[in-house]
Amino acid sequence: MPNYVRDFVFVLLPLLVLLGVLPFFYRNELLLFNFTIYFALAQGLNVIYGFTGYLPFGYVGFFGVGAYGFALAIIHLTTSPALALAIAGLAALVLGVILIPLLRLSGAYFAIANLAAAQAVYHIVSNPDLQDITKGPYGVSLANVFAPRLSYYSALAITALASVVVIWFRNSRFGLALQAIRDDSLSAAMAGIPVVRQRTIAWLLSALIAGLTGGVFAWHISVFYPETAFDISISIFALVFALFGGATTLLGPVIGVLLLYGLYNLIGITIPQYFQLIYGILIVVLVLFLPQGIVSLVSRRGIRVP
Amino acid sequence: MSHKDALLRVEQVVMRFGGFRALDGVSFRVAAGEALGLLGPNGSGKTTCINVISGVYPPSAGRVFFADRDITGKAPNLLARMGINRTFQSPRPFLSLTVRENVELAAAYGGRGSLPMGIEDILDFLELREFAEKPAEGLNSAQQKRLDLARALATNPRLVLIDEIAAGLNPLELRKMAQCLRALASRGIALLVVEHLLSFLEEVTDRVIVLNAGREIFEGSLRAARHDQEVIRVFLGTAAHAG
Lengths: 306, 243
Description:
The complex is a heterodimer of chains A (306) and B (243).
Chain A (H helix, E strand, L loop, with lengths): L2 H23 L3 H24 L7 H18 L3 H18 L8 H19 L5 H4 L5 E2 L6 H23 L2 H11 L1 H6 L4 H27 L1 E2 L1 H4 L2 H14 L5 H20 L4 H15 L6 H4 L7
Antiparallel strand pairs in A: 1-2
Helix pairs in contact in A: 1-7, 2-7, 2-10, 2-12, 2-13, 3-4, 3-5, 3-10, 4-10, 7-10, 8-10, 12-13
Chain B lengths: L5 E12 L2 E12 L3 E5 L6 H8 L7 E6 L2 E2 L5 H7 L1 E3 L12 H12 L8 H7 L15 H13 L5 E5 L7 H16 L3 E5 L3 H7 L2 E6 L2 E7 H6 L1 H14 L1
Parallel strand pairs in B: 3-8, 3-9, 6-7, 7-8
Antiparallel strand pairs in B: 1-2, 1-4, 4-5, 9-10
């Protein structure tokens, strides 16, 4: 069985089936939706960080632009949610194109510049002077298109799309070339790899995933504010989940979301006063002892992790 | 060498970094299948010269021609597809990929037409076959240098720029590397070999260019270079006896 089929059958398919049937048995649909959103975001972040090494602290910028792209399409153009989702993806792609010059930076410089860009977009969106267009800091309401079941399954479809991109990267020459660029961009160029083009494709795919996810988020929660859609903790969570499980793999971010977001909700409900302490210790331990993520416990033994 | 015979022509190349002129009007030619040595003390501009030819940075002035095409400032990936490749002073393989993936990727992206040497032949030629399925990060420095060269060969190059490949190799590895480079030249691949170790260089080629402070101070045979007063003054004074 080829590796890409194995990745699909043993990781993605069970995940989709599980998330597909759970709403019929489990009533807390918002929690399930949030899990689904983070599955998509962690994989979207995996696409850019895991395969190219760029650390996008401002990843939430694409998410927020997607959320507002969706909302403004509904409010001003009175489009259908499906078309609004496409506009959400397109809005994130446009932001991705504008930010392409950031790819000239590396390491912490890229991370900081990306974060600053996300903050800039947030301040534009929340500007009271733009109230007629974005509703400024007062938030948007999309109650007229509220359809939680439909938006939930749309989020699931976006998770599937993000995962398929990761499976493609994991099992194709294209993805291998991206990893080569991540290892050494000059060597990759000397190997004939079009470094700029490959990086740009990964960057835009990652932006598209976050934009679509933001769009479906807006659709599902239907009332939100700029602080909600551009909340930096969305970037941090997606990043920590991907790193905790293990970037560059399909399974790593899935494990990361299941364990950490599961724990987050568990601690948040049972002992919220210790939440930050426990979460912080966990992340420090991970960085110190498993910098390649949980899946490295297996992969370091030479076993291929999906 | 006539204008027509030259595969690579470097003409009056200047490379400035701020106020510092790392290359100051360097010109030379390399014929197809020829091995040319590039000598000079530390900081003389040898690696800068290779970086300019391989497109790492465009020169401040001057032109570089390859097979009569102006390639000045072209991106490294385009040069690889035209038939120019290189190795690095400190080897730079793709550490997270296996040895085979390193070589296959270069063949897939940089390869020009069908390879005269297949992937397996290249791995055998550079004694990397036994490590083929291992990650490159597990190789020692000498093996990583051979992998750099293997990756360059996988693009089916007409010219390979070799940057101090002998550094850190033991005598046996040096002898084998010299044999490899001679074999490549005999197959018609032109080589521009930057090297400090004269005993290694004379195993590979006899024609050398000597740089000092970014300027070419000698062009001719290695034997003649050893007796040139200026070369001896700037570089070979001690190395000639040590090498």
